[in-house]
Amino acid sequence: PPAGGGYGAGSPVGMLGALPSPYKHKASDPSVPSLLDRLSDASDSMRGQIQHPEGGFEGTVEFEPFGTVLTRIFLEVLNSAGDVRWELRRMTLQVLPLLTVTAIWHDFDLLQQLWTRWLPHDGPPAYVAALSIREALLRMLEYTEFASASPAALLGRGCDERVGVLSQRLSDFLPRAMHGIGGLIERHRASLRLCSLGAELIVILHCKFPQIAAEWQ
CB count, 10 Å around CB of 205? Predict the structure, then answer.
């Protein structure tokens, strides 16, 4: 960390640490194709042309489905979380919250697939999944509170219904996540980073989703 940069050992960035290199994920990882199975249909692709001001056309542009783009960015974030370079690990903490929020609104199924696949693993996959779940929980609680407290005139058409649907889908996923979070703590008792993150998730669930937490116990 740069001198005087404020990233001490107790800060989130300082606690991230260098993750073990065996957990680095490359684009050739066998799990990648399965994540893209439902996104690989050629019919999802769009083709366009670049039009010059004079009216002529030159070249063809291939547009990937947005879900494919999101998946690739998630994989880049996963690679960065396991990199030995501090700057890339710092970028993980900056990009992942915004990426999670984008995926919540665009493709919640994609998020669930990533969480389900990564949470049971050790190292960066579990860490990235847990961070993403925490961000989704905090944001959905914020959206729900805002939608319920705001006059209907201030909300976009169908906004409160959309927030309700997403909140319910997240609640439906939480019982499965609880088992993964519990396993995360059990497997990483010596890791302050992962245990503290798992404990924070459990506290949030007990405070905001007591029925789900009680059933898990």
Answer: 21
20 by DSSP, 3-state: which?
Answer: coil
Which pair of structure tokens corresponds to residue 199?
Answer: 């404990």
Query: What angle is formed at CA 22 by the lines to CA 100 and CA 29, rounded to 5 degrees?
Result: 60
The helix, strand and coil proportions of the chain, stated in percent and rounded to the nearest 5, come to: 70, 5, 25
Helices and strands of the chain, counted as H and E runs: 9, 2
Q: How far apart, in whole angstroms, are the C-alpha atoms of residue 42 and residue 62?
A: 11
Place of tokens 């300082």: 14
Q: Which amino acid is at 151?
A: P
pLDDT digits (tens, 9 = 90+) for 112-155: 999 999 988 888 898 899 999 999 999 999 988 888 887 776 77
Element (H, E) at 73: helix 66-81
- Give, in order, the Cα–Cα distances in Å from 51 to each of 55, 58, 171, 194: 6, 7, 46, 50
- For the question of whether the overall pTM of this predicted structure is more than 0.85, the answer is no
Strand partners, 47: 62
Whole-number Å distance between alpha carbons of 104 and 114: 12
Tell me the backbone φ, ψ of residue 25, rounded to 5 degrees.
Answer: -105, 130
